[in-house]
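for the writeup, i need someone to sanity check this before i put it in the appendix. the sequnce is what the collaborator sent (i think, or maybe the updated version? ugh). structure was predicted straight from it, no edits. if anything looks off just tell me and ill rerun, i have time this weekend
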Amino acid sequence: MMFKNSFRLLSANFDKVWKLLVYQLLSWAIVLALLAPFYNTILSCARASFEAHELGKIFTSGTFYGLNVGYSLSSVCAAVIDFIKAIYAFSIGMGIYLLIVLFIVRPILSNVGKYVVCEMTYGYMASGSKHGFTSTLLRTLKNSLPFACLKTLYVLPFDALIILSTFGLTYFNSDAYSYAMPFLIVLVPAIFLAFKETFVAGWAPAMIVFDYNVVKGYPKGMKACLRRGLRVYSTAFIIYLLAFVLSMVIGLYSLIIILPIIFPLFDIFEMVMFFSSQGMRFYVDADTILAPQKLEEVDKIEDAKYLL
């Protein structure tokens, strides 16, 4: 039901897809501006790695499908490694700066956007109302920024595990493994990404629904996730699995469509999970209010004002 209700809410709030997409593009513009002093070096290293491993042949429709996936993944991973080596060979300081911008600054900006979408979704689920992205961003910045910073640091070990597991898939070489590779490249990242999502899914919703600070919100969110831990994990796994399968079958260019939908979908899914775990009623569309089975906590009298 969480999967179904998340898609229903996404359909009723599809404007959030475009608003978050514009925000993400602006975030990338900030990242590119921060990297501007080293633009020529980064571009030359990236171009050399791209051409050395003939990645142009990979980024075409359908080339990640079937047995080609092993060669494609190996080429991409090798190109990334060569790019990092070239950057650090040119300047260690620039290499460290690049990693900070890409793995610290960029995720912080992304997580601020996540918090804003969760806040907007809360307004719709609780009272059927819609709020502007910019006004919500400015209003919640005192909460979203600490959340974004701590979450970025917290998930670094998860991200490292996901990256290492993906690179690890390229170190095996046999005929039998080449047949298993198309399945592994879908299953392994989906397993670890769903595991990561399970550990952070309730964090932002707990802060928003109960007006907790970033420290107090995490255990409250984890408690909500653990109530339905298997369902949370399985739903996240299915969403990631569908995204990977579609990108492989249709081609990597399909990510242009898939990614803008996946990001707000997960934000909405987290709110649905939290409301359902708390036994709180919520709108799924303008005419329908769901009343999940109540567990340890039920709606409080003061929460009734949000329900029309």
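The two ends are 23 Å apart (CA to CA). The first strand starts at residue 282 and ends at 285.
thx in advance!!
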